[in-house]
Amino acid sequence: MEIEIKGHSGCQIDIVNGGDSLFINKSTYDKDYIPRLYKQALKQRNASKIVYQHIRVPEIYSIERMDEYLNIKMEYIYSKNYVDYFEDAGFDQISYFIKALKIFIDSEIENSKMTSINKNIVINKYNDICDRVAKNDFISKDTDIYIILEKSLIVFTELDEEINIPVGQCHGDLTFSNILFNGNNYYLIDFLDSFLESPLLDLVKIRQDSNYGWSQLMYEHDFDIVRMKIISDKIDKEIDAYYSKYDWYNKYYNAFQLMNFLRVVQYAKEERTVVFLKKVLNSIL
To answer: Strands 69-75, 60-66: parallel, antiparallel or unpaired by DSSP?
Structure first.
């Protein structure tokens, strides 16, 4: 028995009854997307072999890759999404979740190395975003977007020639929507290959939700907005305060959060999304 569920980025995701247990099939026929999804599957497979306290990663059972097709068979997790979990959780449970996030990101930092990267890596990514914005018919003539891009270039050009940050490990897309909640265990899904493998990018991603509410904007069902805001604020303040002990976090977080949301802008296709992104980007600038 297969149950198809909603996928993203050209993927089909099926819940399959294997007899004794369920598993997930994630597949694509998109030839352009196959190489990236393959890298993501390898990244998740490697992460699943690492032991984290309270953090788990679904096991990858097999990866079947052909020229025109890719299928990933992985462990199915009985769990809640972040909205359902947050709406039922008490503050003790939220504190436990925050502790688990800190342990995970601390482990990434410990397994990364302070590295000097040339700011041209950031500038090149910015230029790539500009090219993609120009090709996106929905926003290519939006003057507000181009003003934001011009202001952003100033931020990136004013960065140090050599940016000293930890490089080595990161999830790549550590958002609320990519965390499954099973009691006091938290499962990370949808690992993403990033232009820079740095724990700083995971801090950027988690605060993309805790500070700015990106995943809430994408959520398609009703939820308690006030409760979500209170919980998100608690997570954001504790994460921000905890990692403020690092000079690299204090110095470069805003620039990389700016880059993060610019990377979202390039794919925007809906007016409400563009309005939201403009507000966020202007607040960062």
So the answer is: antiparallel
